[in-house]
Design goal:
Blueprint lengths: L4 H15 L2 H8 L3 H15 L4 E2 L6 E2 L1 H28 L4 E8 H6 L1 H11 L3 E8 L1 H9 L5 E5 L7 E16 L9 E2 L8 E5 L4 H12 L8 E6 L2 H9 L4 E5 L4 H6 L2 E6 L4 E10 L6 H12 L7
Parallel strand pairs: 3-4, 3-5, 7-11, 8-9, 8-10
Antiparallel strand pairs: 1-2, 5-12, 6-10, 6-11, 6-12
Helix pairs in contact: 1-2, 1-3, 1-4, 2-3
Length: 305
């Protein structure tokens, strides 16, 4: 739903109140900093009072600002509800949604998910940020994304998380590797091989380190050959014989199909994890986001693996 001038001002005001920063607000709302200041100034003139106390190094709400913030949240939630109700009657859902996806999901699952969603909802505009899990959490805390699709369980006070699909992480080796003929391998054998891993902050890396630690292997026991910021680079390095690695089955789907990589399961136990949907707690999701959410929950993922 398109916002009117007044509620746009309120959105700017709430964002400044939440981020305590004019610069962060200008990034989130896509306005210049002077434009953000002008919107706040206009509200201060309207109510003939200061809304922010700028005397200390941080920006805090004044007593009047606190009252305006409380009512603004209710007013903006009502606008969202209004959009939902009208959308139900007209049957035409339009608007935009901003999604954050961690790298494995963003690169290997989200493209077909969005493609199929757009077939049913051609009028909805979808903006996507693909970053590692840590960065997605930062985008959500800043209010830049409506929801996130990430690897692993997220336990944060201001975020609600629900699993939507399970994923197996498995060992990848080039087809010429001596292990390529094996169905299962011991995790302890990894110490013998050059290993290629994702960067710090990656959900995949956290999962691998946790699994290895459970079997008494620390990063210092490993022979880390390379560290990459993307799974694509890791797969190419493994194909080129630079070492072995552990990736999601989703990520290696194409290479396994074309026979350039071999996927091997660990005999100790499978390395399983959840992919989760994350949303800010206590926030009314726009109708568009609700539609996408129910689509994500009911999608037939198994057919695409």
């Amino acid at each position: 739903m398109t916002m009117g001038l007044e509620d746009h001002k309120l959105k700017v005001f709430c964002t400044v109140a939440e981020t305590k920063s004019f610069s962060k607000t200008s990034e989130i709302i896509h306005l210049t900093q002077p434009a953000v200041s002008l919107q706040i100034q206009a509200l201060e003139e309207l109510y003939e009072t200061k809304l922010f106390d700028r005397s200390s190094s941080t920006i805090n709400l004044t007593a009047a600002g606190e009252i305006l913030y409380k009512y603004s949240k209710d007013i903006l939630a009502l606008y969202t509800e209004l959009g939902k109700e009208i959308g139900k009657i007209t049957g035409l859902i339009k608007g935009s949604i901003t999604i954050g996806a961690s790298t494995t999901i963003g690169n290997y699952i989200l493209p077909s998910l969005i493609l199929d969603f757009k077939k049913n909802h051609p009028k909805i505009k979808i903006n996507v940020f693909i970053k590692n899990t840590q960065k997605i959490l930062e985008l959500m805390n800043s209010g830049i994304i409506d929801m996130g699709l990430v690897e692993g369980e997220i336990s944060r006070q201001k975020i609600k998380s629900e699993p939507f699909i399970t994923d197996e992480l498995a060992l990848i080796v080039p087809t010429a590797h001596p292990w390529a003929k094996k169905k299962l391998i011991s995790v302890l054998d990894l110490i013998k091989e050059p290993f290629i891993i994702r960067e710090e902050g990656s959900g995949t890396r956290q999962m691998i380190e946790k699994y290895l630690a459970g079997h008494g292997i620390s990063p210092s026991d490993m022979s880390i050959a390379l560290v990459f910021g993307s799974t694509e680079s890791i797969k190419e390095a493994v194909e080129g014989g630079s070492g072995v690695s552990i990736v999601s089955r989703w990520a290696a789907k194409k290479e396994v199909k074309y026979g350039t990589l071999k996927l091997i399961t660990f005999k100790e136990e499978k390395m399983m994890r959840h992919f989760s949907i994350i949303m800010p707690k206590n926030t009314v999701l726009p109708y568009v986001a609700e539609e996408f959410l129910s689509f994500v929950r009911s999608y037939p993922y198994a057919e695409h693996l």
